[in-house]
Amino acid sequence: MQRYFLDTPFSNEGNATITGEDSKHIVKVMRMTVGDTLIAVSEGEACVASIIQTQPDGVTIQRQEGSLPLNEMPVKVTIACGLPKGDKLDLIVQKGTELGMHAVIPFEAERSIVKWDAKKGDKKVERLRKIAKEAAEQCHRTVIPNVSEPLSFKQLIQVSSQYDVCLYADEEDAKSDRPNKIAERLKNVYDKQSVLVVFGPEGGLSRKETASMSTAGFLSVSLGPRILRTETAPLYVLSAMSYEFE
Questions:
Q1: Cα–Cα distance between 137 and 74 in angstroms, integer?
Q2: What DSSP string describes 46-73?
Q3: Do residues 185 and 170 make contact, with C-beta atoms less than 8 angstroms apart?
Q4: 119-149: per-residue pLDDT in tens?
Q5: Which of 3, 93, 229, 236 minimizes the number of CB atoms within 10 Å of its CB?
């Protein structure tokens, strides 16, 4: 059954209107009409709803009794990734959404080759948010991961105080005689906590950045003896989180 996220919640009467691209998708692509059912997601809750009216400017639905089971990861994991090259950020957002990511924060790392173009930035973020929405629908999420505007490294340190646990993937940690394995770090993470995990761009995090994060209370974590690509490392961590908590 097709799933759609609502821009506005159901009314007291249990009605809501789906507009924009989703409305066109329902009518023109899915060829749905009055009486057909779909899954509607509103305020983190999914339910079955019936189409009661189709109009050029929107599709009106009415929710049925009961809610569908929740399938969100019990730990809210935010991925902060140094701006990578090419379309790697697209991949991180799409696959991260499938693996239960709660949010993603791109940031301007010292070794980021890519420089964020402020003039085109809004369109890039809009595209990433669309990728997150489509991935959330495909994998039956009840929450669309938030895609943040890119932050500076200084801003990233400032927002880190909002999280219960802050980690950063460290290549040097992995090379040490006693690496801080992710399984050990996750022993100090509990259900309903918020976790921020920072990953460097292609060149990794600089020693200056790791020192700043350590001072701010971040803990380093090793992702195993092999060097992972910048787009692979976040997916490794999310998979480990899913194994541990789901």
A1: 19
A2: EEEEEEEEEETTEEEEEEPSS-PPP---
A3: no
A4: 777 889 999 999 999 999 999 999 999 999 9
A5: 229
Distance CA 44, CA 217 (A): 31
Distance of CA 211 to the CA centre of its chain: 26
What is the spatial distance between Cα 38 and Cα 144, in angstroms, rounded to a whole number? 18
3-state secondary structure of 19: coil
Phi/psi of residue 16, each to 5°? -155, 160
The angle subtended at Cα 198 by Cα 176 and Cα 185, nearest 5°, is: 55
For residue 160, the 8-state DSSP code is G
Question: 3-7, 124-128, 145-149, 225-229: which range is least confident on average?
Answer: 225-229
CA 184/CA 188 separation, integer angstroms:
8
Count of beta carbons in the 10 Å neighbourhood of residue 113: 12
Query: Could you give the dihedral angle defined by the CA atoms of residues 23, 16, 96 and 146, in that order, rounded to the nearest 10 degrees?
Result: 110
- Distance between CA atoms of 93 and 119, rounded to whole angstroms? 21
